[in-house]
Write a structure and sequence with these properties.
3 copies of one chain form a homotrimer. By secondary structure, chain A is of the alpha/beta class. Chain A is built from 6 helices and 6 strands. Chain A has one domain (about 1-155): 3-Layer(aba) Sandwich (Molybdenum Cofactor Biosythetic Enzyme, Chain A). Chain A has helices at about 10-15, 20-30, 45-55, 75-85, 90-100, 130-150; strands at about 1-10, 35-40, 60-65, 85-90, 115, 120-125.
Amino acid sequence: MNAIVITVSDSCFQGHRVDRSGPEVAVRLRQAGFTVDRNLIVPDDRERIAAEIREQAGRARLVVTTGGTGIALRDVTPEATRQVCDRILDGFGEHMRREGLKDTAFAPMSRAVSGTFGTTLIVNVPGSPRAAVASLEAVLPLIQHALALLSGDTEHSEPGRASGKK
Amino acid sequence: MNAIVITVSDSCFQGHRVDRSGPEVAVRLRQAGFTVDRNLIVPDDRERIAAEIREQAGRARLVVTTGGTGIALRDVTPEATRQVCDRILDGFGEHMRREGLKDTAFAPMSRAVSGTFGTTLIVNVPGSPRAAVASLEAVLPLIQHALALLSGDTEHSEPGRASGKK
Amino acid sequence: MNAIVITVSDSCFQGHRVDRSGPEVAVRLRQAGFTVDRNLIVPDDRERIAAEIREQAGRARLVVTTGGTGIALRDVTPEATRQVCDRILDGFGEHMRREGLKDTAFAPMSRAVSGTFGTTLIVNVPGSPRAAVASLEAVLPLIQHALALLSGDTEHSEPGRASGKK
């Protein structure tokens, strides 16, 4: 299954910094069985992030963004993601923050959201390579289950009909 | 106190499947002291769910929906609930998901929300009988406290004035 | 750094009750190094709460409200806060509720939200003195980190670039 990683960062976009998070997220996704043939870098601009998510959602079933989930004034990835998504999955961000507390007391500061856009799943993770990979790992089993459900494969729901469908 | 259970399910509505969650939720509510004289079944249609919640809120102080809280494309109960509610109680869904982790690693996938519509409390629980009852049990003490507060019985607030009123 | 405390309470505003939460929150903020030269009391009115938050945000980098976060019909502080904020910090309310469970099973009932308005941080805490101080303490390290990030001090981010900026 195809996945696309979008790095959101002004300084990476301008070439002032080398993107490490995007490639590390891609490596972790490949280990989990995804094909990742595209890493993109966009600046911290709400409209450009939203447009990129929307376009890539047409090419892949999973779009992971890294960066722009914090509290600094330029951090607008969650807003862009909410703008695109049909439905928000509050439990994904909650779970990342709760799991993140095992690593840092600042985990509750992440504003990362996840949601669906048609049958594509959009997942925000933070911008630091370490937090990006840790957040992704926290929700990887949820991602795989969600993609099966979005494909109409309700037999994967658990226990019984965890999707709420019957 | 009256409660009404609404089962949200295309297949139950069409008669292709027997509704088990609705009756099990009703049994649990009766054990908790509620009078449940009505179980309804509606299809996974946002407008119909919203209309039913709104209508039943005129007849009972508590409306519990089961089903449609997952991630499959037809799951729209949370959206219908948000559309009706005056105010959302984020802590109820959070608490169900956190408690649900004791039972299944997929608990964070539930999008169940709760909220108020006038003095009526609306609570979404998932569609599987097991997850429905477990989610209800997780928030039953909160439900009883919330209904007291919505009745203006601020003496029930705890500790001191947990309702935020003073 | 300046902080302002706004007590939201009809009965305190009308002089029927002495405000204890506001002063206790102010004491705790001073212990944490903030200058608190102003405690305000407003009634449970959404527009007046929003106007007060907006005005005080022009005078201080931190505005803490106490009261109006519950489920009673007059509790509208979270709605007023959402109306003012540019961005919501879901993790702050989540963290208060999770930490609050150590003290009371009713902690999930708080609807307290936090968010940013320009470079000012707005934080709701409940109205009871005990819950107000406990909630504030749960997020104090996050508040201090958030204010540094809002000042553009990304060197304080942790670990590495927990702010999501790079």
